[in-house]
User: Fold this.
Amino acid sequence: MTAQPPNLELQEALLELQQYLSDSVPPLVVADSVQLLMKYPPQALIPTIRAWTAAQYRGASGSSVPLSDYLFHAIKKIHMMGEFRLVAREPLEAYLGQLKQVILALCPDEDRAMLLENLGRLGESSAAISPLQTIFRQAPTEGGPRASASAAAAAAGIRPGETAAASAEALRRFSVLLERLESQGALNIGGAGAAGAAMPATLETEALAYAARSSHSNKELEHYLARLKEMGMEAGTNDIFRALAQSLPGWVLPGQGGAASPMAGMESGALGAMRRIITETDDPAEGGRRFQEMVKAGIERFNEGSLPQAVAMLELADRLVAERKVDRGNAEIVRRRLGDSLDPEQLKKKAEQPDQHALLRNVLRFFTTLTPEGLLEELKREQKRDRRRLILLLLEVHGAPTRGAAFEQLSHSIGANIGEEEWFFRRNLLYLLRRIPRDAESPAADAETDILLQHAQLGFPLLVVKESIAALGQIKDDRSETGLINLMADLEGMLAKPEEAPYEAKDLRILLDRVAATMARVPSQKVRRALVEHAGKRQTYLGDTMARLADMGTQNLSDDPGTVELLLGVIKANLPFRLLGVTLRQNDENLVHAVEALASTPVQAVRRQLEDVASRFRTQDAGKAASRVLAGFDKTGSGSEATSAVESASASLQGDLDLFGLPALLQSLSESASSGTLTLRGPKGGEVFAVLVLREGKLLECQNDHLRAEDAFYQLLERPSPGEFAFIKENIPARPDLTPREILPLTLEAMRRYDEFQEAAALVADDVLLETTDVKPTPHPTEKDGAFLKALWMRVAQGATPRDCERSIASDSYRIRRALVHWVEQGALKPQAPPASPKAPDESSPP
Assistant:
């Protein structure tokens, strides 16, 4: 008789079952094998269970655990595959009904009645898990069942370094989430969605994000996704990245967009899941594909206006490249090609707001074409005006690196046959040199002055000369000041002999306007005096020389009494005067310009002179101009009052929470050991919603709506709100009743709570209505405040939603939602069934 070939598939499934019973593999991994075994008669499992039970019994110390407990443990573990929704419940229950009868035959006679009773209770609510036992133990016939940590570990798929409770909780929560999806009709049961389709911000998105965050390996994630697919939702890794991206916080971590900090690079929660998805694959090509999908998801968040989320993902991508977790060649292709996918309107919007530059730089630096070198290369050949403006904006965002690159390009010698395109490009480089402030790493002032004077040669294209003149005003040294004075003299000479000039007379006067406007802003006595002397020249061909004084009105000349005296002399020289009893009018416009030149100089001599002009010529333009200047003095104060106002303004910090990021702001205040009050209010000057008091960089007090102290602080990051902030420095005295807290530990804890709150909110939504059951609620293992739990239970029992509870109970959202999720998992609470379709009103009943 020919021997039957071994059924390798069945043998592999039985081996995996044996490993599962011994806690060697997680339940997710063995789910397919259990489904396969259910196709065979229960007797097929008996040799494996008998061998496993005998080995366990022989290995037990002193055989203190009865054989029937091992049998119960085996059935319990298979039963839990249905509890965790890894195997369809109804077919599993039918299979277990047959398996129980076979198992009972293996049990010693004296324990059979107890085993039969306990097996009958498997469908009841799960009992508490004790961390001190080793297997699921049977309860005595007169008591309830007790579960062991070893069995819990097996059910949860425990691996080295994990706790049974944590792993079991992840599976329980995923089951709760699937039930929520089914009950609310979120999934199209029976119809698979198209992978790659647009991901709405719905329960499906929450389910994907939860599956990715809670899985500890790609294999576990695959099993989670398989469960979702069975329910009608098919998703690829691109959908997972997009779901995770939406669950990232809307603020930035300290260290992003700036100096490194203890919190920079944290990869818990969604970011940690993204890393695992990319790095835990043995196929480099697949890892590269997933890396590209993550970058695309980050680009999507940027294009939708979520800059902090995009920054977090692109910084993770940068770290993966630096750590060689992805192929550098593939990563470089992504960097080079995907920069064009960023929305130009979003780039423009962010670049026009200086507060966002630090974060935006992180986005730009990631993409090769958006680095200073890449943008300058594009600028050189770009023909469209709007695109050129955007490129210049983005180059400004880069700051010092752009300035250095622009100077390097301008240092190249100007050839005799330089073309129009090159001149235009140099004009844009000069513009960048002017717009980006000098810093410690900028080239020496002498070197920049040489370059600018070289490009300011009269005879070069007007656009280039104009930009060079404006840029010269940014360098405060003797050579640049002398260069401006000489340029003014050269232009005056050319206007005296226009037939020999390289430009038309009107263009020469335009250049003269530009030189004068630049000189008016240079804090140099010799430059100011040269401008006043120029204003005194009344030759018509020079244009309106007095009008060129008005730009000095933006400067406070209080520290330059010599120039003030010259300007007061100009005013006196242009006042109307009497001759032989007749008042002779001067040019009223010249007097207006002289008055305006002192508009920011509130010294007493100026005030007296302007009061005289305003009094004597109140109906004339000069008198009206003097009155306006005096009114400005009264608003800002003078002397020490003005200085005090300036100091007060510099002592305050204010801005947009969306731009600055609350964690980064708090760490900045902590590192600078600042004392004062930080006020948070809604967008566009809305109502105040939180106030924090800091003393020497530590948190002294915090109030957030109805919350106080730590709860109020945690809530700020658990539920981030857009708005504005204002920090006022002030002396904060010590309070014996309050202990200052370090900002960093509080922020780290708040960030941890944010990640866990996202998962809890996916399981128990803001607006879900819960109802009590017959199961007695127990406290969460880490919750010690009985009064808090009692108040929360009463609110829920009265019909309050989770969001209602957060608004009325003095505790942060995470703590409230954690307790509610625990009660739902325990069975003490359950979501209310959807309301039935409305019936026609009964006319006999009262309304």
Q: What stands out?
A: The chain is about 55% helix and 5% strand. The two ends are 83 Å apart (CA to CA).
